[in-house]
Amino acid sequence: MDAQSTVNAAEKTATLRLSGPCGTEHAAALAAAWGALLVQMDGALSQEKSKTAPPSQGFVAVLDLSGVTGVGLAFFEVMTAAAKALARRGIAVSRQGALPDSLRQAAHLAGFTTAPGLGCLFAPPPDGQTAQARP
């Protein structure tokens, strides 16, 4: 598994791009990638000094899964934990890029296409729109 993250404080976006296999043996690395992204986001948010709105307001975490070649159940467990951690901060999660068919099928079989807060990340977006999970 390869994970690349970027945070753009000006645009209030944090992107995590995953590629390669994300099986059970990659769960610790995936959790670490999400943890590193949260640390980067917290750093960007701590620099924001808004007195009228919470610093996380308007911030979006973007997940790019287009390069993922396979997943295990642990992948969905880590994704659920990450989505909950972001939701506690009031940060929405959206998906960009194509969703590999194997990932869509795995999500469907594991029941994650209907999971509250996650389902839209693993289902094809309607009419080519961006999939988004609200906190």
Relevant terms:
five-stranded mixed sheet, 4 helices, 135 residues, alpha/beta
Would you give an account of this structure?
The chain contains four helices and five strands, in the order ββαβαβααβ. Strands 1-2-3-4-5 form a five-stranded mixed beta sheet.
| Secondary structural class | alpha/beta
Question: Quick check: average pLDDT?
Answer: 84
Question: What string, H for helix and E for strand, traces the elements in order?
Answer: EEHEHEHHE
Round the Cα radius of gyration to an integer and report it: 14 Å
Adjacency order of strands in the biggest sheet: 1-2-3-4-5
Approximately how much beta-strand content do the residues carry? 25-35%
Number of helices: 4
Which overall shape is indicated by the principal axes computed on the Cα atoms? globular
What profile does the largest beta sheet have? 5 strands, mixed
- Measured as a percent range, the helix fraction is 25-40%
Spans of at least 5 consecutive residues whose pLDDT stays below 50 are none
User: Termini distance?
Assistant: 27 Å
Give the beta-strand count.
5
